[in-house]
Amino acid sequence: MLAGTAGLVPICELASGGMGRVELALRGEATFRRFYAVKRLHAPYREDPRVRAMFLEEARLAGLVSHPNVVSVLDVGEDSDGLFLLMEYLDGAPLSLLIRESARHGELIPLSVCVEIALQVSLGLHAAHELRSPEQGEICLVHRDVSPQNILLGFDGVVKLTDFGVAKALGGGVETTAGLLKGKYGYMSPEQLRFEPLDRRSDLFSLGVVLYEMLAGRRLYDGRKGPEVIVRRILDDAPPDIGDERDDVPPELCELLFRLLAKNREHRPASAADVARELQWMHSVLVLEEEAVSVEGVVNEWLSEYRDRRGREIEQGLDALRKHAASKRRRKRALIAAACATPLVGLGLGLLIFAGSSSGSGSGAGSSVGSAASVAAASNANATKVPAAPKAPTLSKAPAVAKPVVAATRVATPAPAADAGASSGSGASSGSGVGVELGAVRTIPADAGRATARATVSPSRKRRARRVRRRKRKSRRAASKMPLWRWK
Ligand SMILES: Nc1ncnc2c1ncn2[C@@H]1O[C@H](COP(=O)(O)OP(=O)(O)O)[C@@H](O)[C@H]1O
Ligand SMILES: [Mg+2]
Fold first, then answer.
1. From the CA of 59, which ligand is nearest?
2. What is the rounded CA–CA span in Å between residue 256 and residue 326?
3. Phi/psi class of residue 82: alpha, beta or left (left: φ > 0; alpha: ψ in -120 to 50)?
4. How many CB atoms lie within 10 A of CB 270?
5. Residues lining ligand 1, judged by CB closer than 6 Å?
6. Which of 232, 267, 314, 374 is 20 to 30 A from 80, alpha carbon to alpha carbon?
7. When comparing pLDDT for 79 and 148, which is higher?
8. Which domains does the chain have, with CATH numbers?
């Protein structure tokens, strides 16, 4: 559950990896409805201080990057399920799936689509590399895990880079544990494998591997042969020629791939922006030559099964949510009905008592006090309980109702005769403020109003009030004789 993630309701799981999972969550408020992706750690890692630090570092760095080709991290927090990262949801699929599907169908991804995906990734990557913060200035961020799993293809054709989980800001943040490699071996640059200090060009090597795999429709440095074989091949083998895999690749693209996959970073392009420029130029030429094939078209055609399955999962999740909300509403209605039923019983009883008192003889005083007490008790929520009032001889017929009466003040002095008359005269009026006479103790509800106050006004106070009124009348008269200009 996303308790604490303010209004977010989990819908379904999007992915689950070694360290954590990503789930789809919905936030809905009236007509507002938006999906988010929420990333969490698996239970065994939740309390690990090193993993927590990495997670928070991912949130910090990714949260700073703002670019259409980078998945936005909107928030980070912690609830009963541990730390979570709130991200924009990308309705799409990872590039790894497209490459797999292309291999499964024995088809190659159209050239222009490969170039366009690589172009969008390089733009996002450049934004990450160029990241600056108001406090630190230049951050020199290196993603360190550019791979097909971390490149998301939207069904609308937008490509986004994600997962800054092992990203590193040079000279700051969480340090890499000596001897521990983070990221996927098959996409690591030679310098990364040699534990050398990294710069942005390390990510360009990984981008080269990704571009090669898209074009070839297969892994370049295959992980199935074990990490030692991969490491040896990345360090020692000459960069492969994509022209051997497909013959529609223009020489400029072959040459760019050679440079991206160079063992020596000095031979690679200087920045992702340079790569983007070259790819942009190639793309514009390819679009003129090739039949217009877009990322959107290919993703929707090749991954339609995945898209539909995801759609069904989301619909099922929403359905479960709707059912849950409906049963909650039903339970609430039942509770309200039960709560309403009780006062109705009370009101019915009250009416019965009232009918009995008006028709019966000799029970007038007792019943009226009784009904007043119940009305006062019902209407005066703030009233305090007084100890059981001593039974007066006149109340002997209604002792049970008169006992648990509410009152704010206890007046120990004997009540004046007029008050006694008022209190015993009408039950309803005593409920709306007039004191309720209970034998020797006179109780007044907390909201006792002016009627009670007036009944207990002393003669000297009356005289003072009369004097004040007279003074006011006099000043009003004087004001009316004043010339008009005085009022301007
Ligand atoms: N914002 C998102 N929108 C949609 N799917 C996402 C999003 N973030 C991650 N995913 C899915 O979850 C997978 C794993 O996410 P990632 O951040 O790479 O986690 P990990 O650290 O486990 O690799 C991605 O490959 C993608 O399929
Ligand atoms: Mg990942």
1. 1
2. 58
3. left
4. 12
5. 14-15, 17, 19-20, 22, 37, 39, 71, 87-90, 94, 149-150, 152, 162-163, 165
6. 314
7. 148
8. 1-89 (3.30.200.20), 91-302 (1.10.510.10), 322-362+463-487 (no CATH), 380-449 (no CATH)
Ligand 2 ion: residues within 5 Å (CB): 149-150, 163
What's residue 180's pLDDT? 53
pLDDT at residue 328 is higher than 90: no
Q: Is 37 helix (H, G, I), strand (E, B) or coil?
A: strand
pTM for the predicted model, two decimal places: 0.69
Q: At 133, which helix (H) or strand (E)?
A: strand 132-133
Stated as kind and residue range, the H or E segment containing 39 is: strand 32-41
Choose from 153-167, 357-371, 447-461 the range with maximum mean pLDDT: 153-167
Token pair 């020629």 is at which residue?
A: 241
What gap in Å lies between CA 203 and CA 180, rounded to an integer? 18
**81 is a catalytic site residue:** no
Bigger pLDDT: 409 vs 255? 255
Here the tokens at position 241 are: 């020629």
Mutate to test the pocket of ligand 1, among 12, 152, 307, 310 (most ligand atoms within 8 A of CB): 152
The SS3 of residue 38 is strand
Q: No. of H helices and E strands in the chain? A: 16, 17
First to last CA, the chain: 68
Q: Exposed, middle or buried: residue 139 (CB in 10 Å: 0-12, 13-18, 19+)?
A: buried
Query: DSSP assignment of 223-248, as one string?
Result: GGG-HHHHHHHHHHSPPPPGGGT-TT
Mean pLDDT, range 325-349, rounded to an integer = 78
Q: Which residue has the higher pLDDT, 106 or 378?
A: 106
C-alpha 348/C-alpha 321 separation (Å) is: 40
The 3-state DSSP class for residue 357 equals helix
Q: Which two tokens stand for residue 469?
A: 């009124």
Q: Do 27 and 8 touch, CB atoms closer than 8 A?
A: yes
